[in-house]
Structure prediction request, 422 residues.
Amino acid sequence: MLASSGATRPFAPFEWMIALRYLRARRKTSFVSVIALFSFLGIMLGVATLIVVMSVMNGFHKELLDKIIGINGHIFLQPVEVPLTDYDDVTDSVSMAKGVELALPLVEGPAAVSTTNMAFALVRGVREADIKRLPGIAGNIRSGTLDGFDTAGGAAIGVRLAENLGLRVGDRIKVLIANGAQTPFGVTPRSKVYPITAIFQIGMSEFDNLFVYLPLPEAQAFFDRDNEASVIEIFVRDPEELDAVRGEIDKVVTRPMIMTDWRERNRTYFEALAVERNVMFVILTLIILVAALNTISGLIMLVKDKGHDIAILRTMGATRGAIMRIFLVTGASIGVAGTIAGFVLGILVASNVEGVRQLLNRLLHANFFPAELYFLSRLPSVVDPRDVAAVVLTALALSVLATIYPSWRAARLDPVEALRYE
Prediction:
C-alpha cells in the first residue's frame, strides 16, 4: 500500500511521476493535452510580451529623459525684478553648489531661419566652453567643429534642420525675428546671416530640427540683450533627485531668481508616460490570466477523465492531500514551464528589439517606428530586473492559483462513487 510505504509524504516521487504522466498526450486525453499546450503558449507569450513592452517603455523613459534634460538642463534660474547682467557671478556661485555638474548662462529666443526654404527654430546663445560640455551636444558633432566657436561668429545647427534646409558646413543661414528696429513706419524685422560651423545630432528628431546655437555675444547683440542672459541652466549629477540640490542652490544664490526644474516643465508628459506604462502592464497581464483560466478548464476536464484513476489511488492508500498535490504539480508545471520559456524569449527580444525592428522593416518593406513620428532615431529598450521579477512572480502566482480549485475538486472525489459502476 502507498500509505504503508510512506510514499504519501508531501511531493513524494510517485506524485511527481503521476502528475507529469498526466501531461503527456494520449488518445483519450488528447483534448486535455491540447488545452495544456495552449495554456503553456498563452503564459509564454504573455510573459514575453510583458517583458518586452516594459523594457521598451523603460527605454522610452530613459531616452526621452536623457534627450529632453540632456539638452535643456535640469534646473533653470530666471531673473526677477532686474536683468541678469551679473550672470558670470551667479554662474560661478551655482557651480560651487553640491551636486551641480554644470551651470551656464543662455540667451534664447524663437526665430525664423531660412535659405531657399524657411523653418522655425529656437536660437540659443552660449559660450564655447559651455557648448562643448553640453551632454546633448558633446560627442555628437556630425560635421564641422566647435573649436573657435566664440570667435568664428557662426552657428551650430541640428542635423535634421540642416537636411530640411539643404545646408552643409560652410553654407550660410539667415536668422530673422519680428521684433527689430523701431522706425517711423513701425517695427521692422531684424535679420542676420551666419555661416554654419558645426552640425550636431542629438538623436531626438524634434530637437535636431529645432535648435540653433550662436556664440553668446552674437545672441546678445541679435536679441538686443546687451551684456545680459535670459536664463541660467544647471545640470546636476542625478536628475531624479533634485530637491537636495535645489536647497544647495538656494543657499548660494543671493539675488531674486525664479527656480524651476525639468519635472515642472515636463510633468504632464512624463506622468502620461507612467500612466501608459501601468495601463499596458495591467492589459497585458490579462493574457496571462486568460492562459491561467485555460489551465483551470483543462485541469477540471482532466479530473473528470481521471476519476477512475483517482479512486484506485485512494483505495491503495493515497491521501486527499496526495491527490491534491498531484494535480497541483500538473497545473503548476504548465505555468512554470510557460513562465520560464516566456522569460527567456522576452529577454532575448527585449535585448535585441532594435535588430528585430530593422529585420521587420526589411522583410515587410515598411518603416516601423519612424523617427519623424516618435522623435527618437532608434527603438529604445532597457531591461529592468525589477520589472522582470514582477512579471515572472505575477505569472507564477496566477499559474499556481489557477490549479487550486481543480486540485481541490480532485481531492474531494469519493472513490466509492467513482467505482460504483465499474
